[in-house]
Write a structure and sequence with these properties.
The chain is an alpha+beta fold and 229 residues long. It folds into two domains: 8-117, no CATH class; 125-222, no CATH class. It is built from five helices and eleven strands. A hairpin with a 5-residue loop joins strand 10 (210-213) and strand 11. It is elongated and about 75 Å long. The chain binds zinc ion (ZN). Zinc ion binds next to strand 4 and helix 3. Residues 22, 24, 27, 29, 79-80, 82-83 line the site of zinc ion.
């Protein structure tokens, strides 16, 4: 049986919509770059992979698809060469069409957010400001996706004299920017905080991945959460 391969324009579209990065949320590897030796060449180790296989017997093959559907962009996902190989192992049993479609949808949303906000690392930012005599914690969500279970983890100043337990005030969903005008305010008594600390925040994104936003602006994945009470 013939394989319903993607044509070059479809491959390019998938690559561009993914910003030439692997769509596996745990990979995100860049799949385009410069050749150091040849100034006229780029290196592009990315793959337009099939969500449902290109031919019968392949991983996740869907017999109800037409040939056109099988070779359309909607049946493709951009991956690095390792992840393209990974998702097809054992006939793709560990990587369902639904999972790959979720990867693709979230990754394309991510590239859109990065494109429109200029942020290469989307995520929450928090800081404290004096407001009408009291200190308030401000949390900003610059992206179009909500974040969950945000807590204050610490302050930038090493010798900061505050009881962190008293300022763990952000909890729940931090919605998209459209619905809350960028900023959520939480009141903190001025007696609790002395100075203008930038804060570390811990939160969860739509994929269920836990993040730590350091006050330096650095974003890090974390694989543990301190217990909420
Ligand atoms: Zn990858």
């Amino acid at each position: 049986m013939a394989r319903d391969e993607f044509l070059e324009p479809v491959k390019r579209l998938l690559a561009e919509r993914s910003a030439y990065r692997c769509s596996n949320p745990d990979c995100q590897r860049t799949t385009v770059g410069a050749s150091i030796v040849d100034p006229n060449k780029a290196i592009k180790p990315g793959v337009a992979a099939h969500i449902h296989a290109a031919s019968e017997g392949g991983p996740r093959f869907n017999s109800s698809q037409t040939s056109d559907e099988r070779s359309s962009a909607s049946n493709g996902i951009w991956l690095c060469e390792f992840c393209a190989s990974l998702v097809d192992k054992n006939h793709g049993v560990d990587f369902s069409p639904e999972l790959l479609k979720q990867w693709k949808e979230i990754h394309e949303l991510r590239t859109f957010v990065e494109l429109t906000t200029g942020a290469s690392e989307a995520g929450l930012t928090g800081w404290c400001e004096e407001f009408e005599g009291n200190w308030k914690l401000f949390v900003k969500n610059p992206t179009i996706v909500p974040f969950y279970d945000c807590v204050v983890r610490g302050f930038k100043q090493e010798n900061f004299d505050a009881d962190f337990g008293d300022v763990e005030v952000v909890f729940g969903t931090i919605p998209p920017r459209q619905s809350l005008d960028d900023t959520i305010e939480y009141g903190i008594l001025s007696s609790d905080i002395f100075g203008y600390p930038l804060i570390d925040l811990e939160y969860t994104d739509v994929e269920g991945v836990h993040w730590l936003r350091h006050s330096s602006g650095k974003l890090a994945k974390i694989d543990f959460r301190r217990p909420f009470d």
